[in-house]
Amino acid sequence: MLVKSKIFNDYNKNYIFIILSYGFFLGWMLSFPYNGPIYEYLAQGYNFSGEYYPLAYIGVPIVFLVFFGYVNSKEKFPKRLLIYSIVVSLGGNLVLFFGVTYWYVIFTFMGIASVLFVVGWSYFYTISVSYKDKIKVMGLTIILGNTVEYLINLLVKMGLQIYALNTLIVVLAISLISASFLDFQKSYDYAYDTSKDIRKLIFFVCAILFLINLNDGLSQKLIEPFFKNIEFNLLFYRRIPYIMGIMVMVVFSDKISHTYSFYIALFLIGMANVVFMVLGVTEVGFYVNETILQSGLGIGDLFAWTIVGHVGHLYGRPYKITSFALIALLTSVFIGRVLGIIFLNYSEGGIYTIAVSYTTVFLTMLLIPKLIETIDRDVVKIKEKNKFESRIKSLTDREFQIYELLTKGKKNHEIAEDLFISDNTLKTHLRNIYKKLNVAGKKELPIER
Fold first, then answer.
1. SS3 of 11, please?
2. For position 283, what pLDDT does the model report?
């Protein structure tokens, strides 16, 4: 049963488990394989370069997802995908913590498990969360994941690495327990049009995700190293504006349109590069740059992934949509990090970064209006279709029989003969049918041709 909530427009019991399952799993990804603080600690302990194993975690799943997105479009066993993925990730953690040296192999398997988790989770996010609440559920999930990463990072930097490692195991355990409670409960407004060709929409969504996250990959490998001399500040501040930007958008999500939100994100990302050029590598420059950049990236991530959920809500096929969205995300981060490594070798690396950043901002601004326009137009169409289908449910059994014959192109006298009723009785039923369906007559019904 749906109940009203002070936070959500509509609410069902799945919301809390959807947020907890992915929120904690995201916290694990950010803290360890996604070049997180646990990985940096282990890299120092095992005395190897910290650049390349995370690239295996990101790069190999891209190839896997291309195959998965094209071949496996049916939504099968989403709950098993979540549970098995967490178990594989947990096993990979334990193996690496005990000193096994096959890092490329283990990171590859954990990378595939991670993307399968997100794909399976997208099914529950798509069917259980109402259209209006998707941005709030996504926002709270991302906030939880980044908060977990922040706390684990704090433990590592305080010298409490053993506690951090144990916390990481607990985080995965909570994700596993939460995933086991997920239920196949549909939101009241979940209905989709699987007949629509959505290849162009998927392209727009993937292009926007790619362009936004390219800046994230570049900043991690090129800009952040400049601030290593104020690493203490880097630890305690860099996640805060990211989380706060998302929180503000969650609070005001009912009042701010998708289009304006994207433009706000792009403006902030673009301004961060100006600040970096003007203020340089100073403490003030750090605070201003991180505040602007991380806020922009947070808002951009929130609305881009909410759009992915909206497309699945409207057109079905969440596995396929999420698979290609992940391909775009991972490819952009992979390329961004590689470019960052390359640019570090050139004195003009900062200029190259700014040029790439502004190019991505410009291209994203060209794509956003078309994407939002298409989705908003189809929202109206599908809402009207849903209303019509709900009106059909109000018909009596006899009226529904007549309605079905009408949609098959039967004439009035043929319907009367088939149902053994008089013409006058049929006319009475027709008046009631047209009134309940809110149509003027037979011409406004979906007649089979």
1. strand
2. 72
- Using the 8-state DSSP alphabet, how is residue 445 labeled? S
Relative orientation angle of helices 37-46 and 53-71, to the nearest 10 degrees: 130
Helix axes 78-97, 161-180, angle to 10 degrees: 160
Whole-prediction pTM: 0.74
Query: What is residue 178's predicted lDDT score, i.e. its pLDDT?
Result: 93
* 8 Å CB contact between 33 and 57: yes
Integer Cα distance of 227 and 275 in angstroms? 14
From residue 414, give the alpha-carbon distance in Å to each of 11, 102, 410, 417, 431. 47, 75, 6, 5, 17
Residue 5 is predicted with a pLDDT of: 47
Domains, the chain, with CATH or none: 8-190 (1.20.1250), 192-373 (1.20.1250.20), 394-444 (1.10.10.10)
Length of the chain: 449
Kindly give, in sequence order, each residue whose CB lies less than 8 Å from that of residue 311, ignoring residues fewer than 6 positions away. Answer: 198, 201, 202, 205, 321, 375
Cα 257–Cα 261–Cα 265 angle in degrees, nearest 5: 175
Tell me how far apart the alpha carbons of residues 273 and 277 are, in angstroms, rounded to a whole number.
Answer: 6
Low-confidence ranges of the chain (pLDDT < 50): 1-5, 449
